[in-house]
# Entry
Amino acid sequence: MNITYKTEIKPTARQILKIRQIMRICCWIYNQYIKTNCNLYKMYQRGFLASTELRFMTVEKFERYVDIELIKEKKYLWLKECDNYTRKMVLINAESAFKSFLQKKAAFPRLKIDNQKVKI
# Structure
């Protein structure tokens, strides 16, 4: 027997801003991962990539790319405001969506919309 609990949170205005900020970062990271893999997949389809090369970037490679290259640039310093665990979970979800597409189990993953009118 499964027991579930319903919990209601009442964040402060400052917490709401932080939640929205993290949600925007997660949407951006998800979209960048999907866009990167879409470009790689198109290059593979057109024959620009060898058949031995991967048709998509793994979570570990993309995470290294974000940590090493993007966060060092001044215009992407805001990515540090989201913890590594959250970014990793977003990338794992994006990778599973892209793998399902490659295995023809699902349609192409849609980009997440960064909706600023998120209600909490």
Notes: Residues 116-120 have pLDDT under 50 and may be disordered. The two ends are 31 Å apart (CA to CA). The CA atoms of residues 26 and 87 lie 6 Å apart.
